[in-house]
Batch of 3 targets.
Target 1
Amino acid sequence: MREITGQALERVLGHEFADHALLRTALTHRSHGVPNNERLEFIGDALLNCVIALELYERFNDLSEGDLSRLRSHLVCQESLHQLALKLDLSAALRLGEGELKSGGHRRPSILADALEALFAAIYLDAGFAKLREAIVAVYGDTLSQAQPGEILKDAKTRLQETLQASRLPLPRYTLLSAQGAAHEQRFRVACEVESLGLTTEGEGSSRRAAEQVAAEEAVRALAEREAGRKR
């Protein structure tokens, strides 16, 4: 696995750490040893929810409390964090134990999402809330600035279905690819196929339904990218 230096990650985050031990801890999974990022992830989860809540409150004056909560949930869910972590190339900076590394832990959505939350906590502890808010807004980028509540508040399967129906295309087909792990911590992988468009995406989740939603979200994103490409 290719490695990314702490300095490179700092440039991407837009924050240079005064205490590099915080950065190192944020990138350390429990399989690697102690100290690790579990405690930082706990703080980061709360801080991220707070910052996103503030951003949404200031950006969307007409949304009700319920709609704000649903929009925030969409933006801070594991899959959203996973996608942001991939854009940051965070997997290349993680410190994992040998077993976790061999099993592909650097690609696991839960590990990447937790590490990103731990990074947010590390920034807060290193430089305070204002710097943290700047970093979160920078990391979220277009995901936050282009959020459309009317669409996001619908789940991904509904949005995909409506997109296909608008073009009078057949509905997608969801196929279970795998179910792994013990009963209390199973991971499901599902394929979403839009045969008429030659498009197949995959998603992973803690339930088959969650995996279908992730796969549908990937399909919606892929169709949007195709449309944007045609307009260029």
Note: The mean pLDDT is 87.
Target 2
Amino acid sequence: MKLALLRHAPTTWNEEGRLQGLSDIHLSRAGRAAARGWRLPDRLYGWRRISSPLLRALETAALTGLQDPEIDPRLREMDWGNWEGQTLDSLRHADPTAMATNEAAGLDFRPPDGESPREVRSRLLDLVRDLGADGRDTVAVTHRGVMRAALSAATGWDFTGAPPVRMPRYGLLMLTMDDNAALFPDDPPVIATGGGR
């Protein structure tokens, strides 16, 4: 089975470098224009369609032609807790030692009152097991944190150091799932969005 993960188009908070998490931010004007111009591989339009419940993902699904997706809360972004609305640069500047220690924890990095990447990966793998039981190739509109969690599950990356597969800011992460609901990078693993539809 194939699983394609598409990150939502930009919001004003993305453009300002702010952590969004569960904050329900609409796409920016530039983000809407970008999503309208994205050209996804034709085969994806015949696949099962699912989406995060957050507005930025639902708007991206509609603007890219992935109409009427099923909503699954397991595709929501990582909860950044008390850090939502802030920038990583400002957090690193405010307390460099504490932030460095937290970031070095990799999968167990945790914002105050937020969620760790390990927890994001766990809920994503719960969804993957359900998708495997369904057996249909699936395209999911989601968030960068979820895509990074999927890459971790597919490659063993522990969120320390650079990811083993370079993901563009906006693009598709293509994965294959085996009969045991294990994920593996597809070939190619990343497809950049762009062009017209």
Note: The longest strand covers residues 183-192.
Target 3
Amino acid sequence: MSTSEKPKPIITGDSQAQGIAKFASRVTYGDLTPERRERLKVSVLDSLACAINAVGAPPTVACLEQAKQFGGSDARCTLIGGGKANVVYAAQYNTALVRYIDFMDSYLGGEELCHPSDNVGAVLAACEHAGRSGKEFLAALAVAYQVESALTANAPFMADGFDLTTQLSFSIAAGASKALQLDEARSAAAVEICGDVIPLLVVRTTPISQWKGLNSSQAALASIHGVFLASRGVTGPKYVIEGPNGLAQAVGKSIQVDWDNIKLDCFDRLALKSYNTAIPAQSAVFCTLALHKAHPFDPADIVSIEADVFQDAYDFTGGGRFGPKHDVHTKEDADHSLPYLLAVALLDGDVQTAQLEASRIAKRDVQDLLQKVTVRPNDGFTARYPAELQSRVTVRLQNGGSFTHEISDYAGAPTRPFTWKEIEAKFDKLAAGHTTEKSCQKIKNAVRSLEDIQVSDLMTILSELKG
């Protein structure tokens, strides 16, 4: 789009940043309906399961070492798994834990998606720093979830080369401001300052690096730093979104959200993962597993595997706009490669963290089988996305036989949200080997009863995983 075609920036009146600040200020815990409150707590437990599983992974260890080296001043915030740091580095490290294994929630906004759980580590840190209750944490986190989701639904950033974490700086600013109980003026300044942190989409392009699992923690680091500067009176660019040379002009699209009428309804389009891969790949993996369960053939007899998917699944994991997906050697390659994921699903009967270990990825059986997978975008499936998450998989065998299966959702999709029992099962699976059964039960009980405890109570349990 040429400069002349870009929308003229609005430079008078209330700004989008002020609208976000007003929204954050007016939201209360009571604005969450019981059903949406339950879905938020399910996402919190899901996020903590991911975080616990990621403790000790080499990239998160690097983050931990930096938090311990540079985050010692005013170290009142808990690092999940043990230790303390200041609020800035606690936000950074705990966000890295939640995000790194790529097993967390997603909001499906149509043209765009985001991971609202990227807000959890930062909002937890701000709430612990400020001595907030579990109710106050849920309200602040709901604000962050809604701000990120509303921006995702109203402005497709990825089409213009900006990462899906672009919205995160605004949402962390809003949620942390709510947690710190900043007034509207300082909350707006926080949004304005944090909105100047813009990540690039190159992080998701083949070859994928470890930074894919950490770039949201960089947003948390910068955003919490910015929020505290705003709390001390530092001002930001008022029209950071819609002004001259602001975000809207950078993406060539008008970004106008009616914040006065935004409600806490993003949870209705929230998806959780049953399998350890990107959210667009979930339905194809589920379809493949269902096909093999119905027709238990020997994977050694496979001649070809054909997967028809919606466009986002093709782009992220099938060989579309983010690059080819048949050269798979690392976790980062594997969890965003449908050829690998479908192959390992047929061989192992599941796609969990074990299927993304380097030793599993390197085995000849899966390396050979993934080369037989073809992924295609289907216009009909794309037209029905995200209301339906359709996938169709066809397997052809050496004896001339073939099997086809098609599905439109999976457990964890917005139309089939996890029950508390289902999220407990996922939590237990991810936490196994990383903490004790006693600690697992304490964490589940704490999240279940967040309204009745302090954030510090939850963080104490999370600091004692081996206790």
Note: The longest strand covers residues 302-309.
